[in-house]
Amino acid sequence: MKENKSRILLVEDDLDMQILLLHTLKSNYLFKAVGDIPQALKELKEEAGQYDLILTDVQLPGKSGLKLVEVLRDNHISIPVIVMTAFGNLENAVEAMRDGAFDYILKPLNVDALKISIDRALRVRSLETENLVLRQEVKRSWNFENIIGKSVPIRAVFDLVQRVAPTQANIFITGETGTGKEIFARAIHNLSPRAARPFIPINCSAIPAELLESELFGHTKGSFTGAHQDKKGLFEEAQGGTVFLDEIGDMEVSLQAKLLRVVQERKIKPVGANKQIDIDVRIISATHKDLKAGIRDGLFREDLFYRLCVIPMDLPALRQRKEDIPLLSEYFFKKYTATHGLKLRGFSPELMERLIAHPWEGNVRELENFVERSVILCTEEWISEKFLPLISAPPSSTQFLDDRFSENLTLREVEKRYINMILRRTGMRKEQSAQILGIDRKTLYRKEKEFGLATEADAPAEAVSDTVL
Length: 469
Fold this sequence. Notes:
Layout: E1 7-11, H1 15-25, E2 30-34, H2 37-46, E3 53-57, H3 65-74, E4 81-85, H4 90-98, E5 103-106, H5 111-139, E6 143-144, E7 147-148, H6 152-164, E8 171-174, H7 181-190, E9 199-203, H8 209-217, E10 218-219, E11 231-232, H9 234-237, E12 242-246, H10 253-265, E13 267-268, E14 277-278, E15 282-287, H11 291-296, H12 302-308, E16 311-314, H13 325-339, E17 346-347, H14 349-357, H15 363-377, E18 382-383, H16 397-404, H17 411-425, H18 430-437, H19 441-451, H20 461-468
Parallel strand pairs: 1-2, 1-3, 3-4, 4-5, 8-15, 8-16, 9-12, 12-15, 17-18
Antiparallel strand pairs: 6-7, 10-11, 13-14
Helix pairs in contact: 5-13, 10-12, 13-15, 18-19
């Protein structure tokens, strides 16, 4: 049976010291002892990759043990080296650490201190090896149009993207919030014959219904108050390219009828215009909603759904592709350490276990935000689980209130703060915020206005008319 002990190369010319170390540490590690630098280099060459740590004396025949540290550094051989010497002084210590030694131990040796140093060095090597494997995996074929993954569910999506991208078919992408619907839409566009033409994304829930028609199809000068000049719509801007309609499930039914005509006839009519404009665009739509339920409830047109959903594409949640979490974490780690100019070594194994086990309700977007925050806040070499408050269980409702409203507030102030929090959480999406709050958009606008959170531009059409009256 193969022993699972770490292998240490001891470079020491004093035979008594060799015997002492081999006898003292043989139960914990596998040792091979040599007497000088040439023998050490020969052993490392013949047994490439077999040693986990080097323990070397400074005073050796011919060359100093510090020379070994220098040779390893210059040849990019990442084996931790612990330097021992009976002639310890600050200058030697600084030189050894500057040249890349992991630690510096003085003779006469404290065996317990040496064991602690060896164990620390071996743990760091294990972490570095683990993170190197992750980096190599990220560089492999798991990177598809800036989408990281090797799990079976995500590779099935990669395969579908490659098959449908060269066609002209409309694509309908579904998936939970944060699964990367826009990223996949861009990938389809970039792999299509339309790649040289524009990719125009528009979030249907982020623009008030009364303005969305103008954004999509354009308008003529004077067609409504504030229309001071002709404006091209996004469909016209995307001529020859792709329009990505995100959160299409939030589009008003009246506008859905106009979009259906565009899809069928490949023509648009700007607001206030008398003439139609021919367009050549591919439409990719996306939603996190159940549109089949929306059709049953009369909130979404069935004929439009089947026009848009020629090719359905369902993106897996991150909890369904746990195998990709280490790869994604490493990708975001490299991205944000570079972005913020920080020097960290990577993730601890305990942390990675917690990441893989976490449900990630916000999916890849939540993981990315977590990694960036951890990179910024981490004050040590390794990001460990002690830096991960996001991994803990969600607080109870009582704890939620205690955390946010530590001071005594009036009910009015609590209502104001809660509405403001929901608006920020939804990215100021009025329809979605109103649904969460259990009120209609008109009531939400009135509350915003009452609390000084809104402008006239935020008002729904019916609220504006009430205000004018």
